[in-house]
């Protein structure tokens, strides 16, 4: 997973069903992650990584509509057989957050 989080604003048709937004979001963000991780130091990787839409996963309960906007909470999983330059000492997200027992943000 990435060691950072961010927020983005995206223009979209307010009548667009959420499922129709998810596939383009995954495709686009996987391209962003691939471009970011071509700097192997940034991703703590020994090789350049290539991400696909299947590496972008949504946190349970998201995306959802709130106050006229779509809120998306997601995480990116490293591709299978990724070799890291140094060992990650612990998960970047706590077990409570990963299991859905605790909110990602308070």
From TrEMBL:
Pfam family, one: DUF8077
Limits of the DUF8077 domain: 1-99
InterPro entries to which the protein is assigned, alphabetical: DUF8077 (IPR058390)
Protein name as catalogued: DUF8077 domain-containing protein
Species classification: Eukaryota, Metazoa, Ecdysozoa, Nematoda, Chromadorea
